[in-house]
Amino acid sequence: MNEQEQEKFANHLRQSLAPMSRELNRDLWPNMLRRVNEGARQRQWIAVLFSPAALSSVPWFDWALLAALVIGICAFPQSIPIWLYHF
Amino acid sequence: MELLEEHPTVLAQFAAGELEAFEMLFRQFQGEVFGWIVRIVRDPAAAEDLTVETFWRIYRGHARFDPERSFGAWARRIATNVAIDYLKTGQSREGAWAASPAVESAQDQRAGNSVNPAIQRELRERTQLALQHLPAKLRVVATLALIEECPHSEIAAVLNISAAAVKSRLFRAVRLLRKKLGNLDTTYE
To answer: CA B143, CA A78: separation in Å to the nearest integer?
Structure first.
């Protein structure tokens, strides 16, 4: 297809679809602020979950159980399907 | 308004993550970003949501912004990516492109009064459908270059590609559109 044909086709397109020129007729800042606050809350939630205070409140035997589980999985990887079945 | 963008303090404060500076930039550029997105997705309702999504990405990426560079150009590039992502997800509804009576009237005037309105409507629907079925990257180039008549250099800048790549995408888009539309040429002749 040469440039002349392409221009002819573009003219057909412009005739059937007009350019869109719309003005924004309302302020979107309230929506934006809501989005920013939601994002901040999510970050806060993650920060709280993994904060030193939250981690230090976990009892020592839970950490010991987790460590035993990790060691068990590393020592016997074939046991993974059994663990997955029980969880 | 232009002065605000050039104000280095506001841009530096935004880059440092200050919400007040972000708000000033948002209020200055929301109309421009909305206008750009609506030209690509051709759906004002979706464009409002995508404008907020664009500024959310801008806000999250504030640390990557270089205050020495133009905020408007950066925002427009991000807006284009957001619009392309939207087109890729296929959320762009076929009905969303339905033109208002005023727009249809303007389109009819562009097409000329000699053409039967029923044929015009059918042609418009077929063209919209054909454009909607183009891959997102080709669709953006075709919409901006052929319908919105944006210069190739401007399209290249927002897509972060060369002008030659724009021409190549446009060529592929037109070839695909011609294949889909078939006898479009004979409809007007």
So the answer is: 56
pLDDT at B156: 95
Q: What is the pLDDT of residues B4-50, one digit of tens each?
A: 555 778 899 999 989 999 999 999 999 999 999 999 998 999 999 99
Token duo for residue A37 = 């606050």
Q: How far is CA B106 from CA A16, B53, B141, B161, in A?
A: 10, 31, 23, 33
- Do the chains contact at A22 and B47, CB–CB below 8 Å? yes
Residue with tokens 């015009």: B120
CB contact under 8 A, A14 and B112: no
Contacts 24+ apart (CB under 8 A), B98-102: B99/A18, B99/B124
Identify from B148, B155, B171 which residue to disrupt to test chain A contact, counting A C-beta atoms within 10 A and taking the largest count. B148
A19 CB near a chain B CB, below 8 Å?
A: yes
Please check whether residue A20 is in contact with residue B39, taking contact to mean a CB–CB distance below 8 angstroms.
yes
A4 CB near a chain B CB, below 8 Å?
Answer: no
A12 interface with B at CB cutoff 8 Å:
yes
Count Cβ atoms within 10 A of the Cβ of residue A86 and give its class: 0-12 exposed, 13-18 middle, 19 or more buried.
exposed
Residue type, A56: S
Judge if pTM exceeds 0.80: no
How far is A24 from A87, CA to CA, in rounded Å? 52
Per residue in B99-155, pLDDT tens? 545 455 555 555 555 567 777 778 778 888 888 889 999 999 999 998 888 999 999
Confirm if B149 and A10 have CB atoms less than 8 A apart.
Answer: no
List CB contacts (< 8 A) between B55 and chain A.
Answer: 28, 32
Chain A residues in contact with B27 by the CB 8 A cut-off are 27, 29
The verdict on a CB contact (< 8 Å) between A22 and B34 is yes
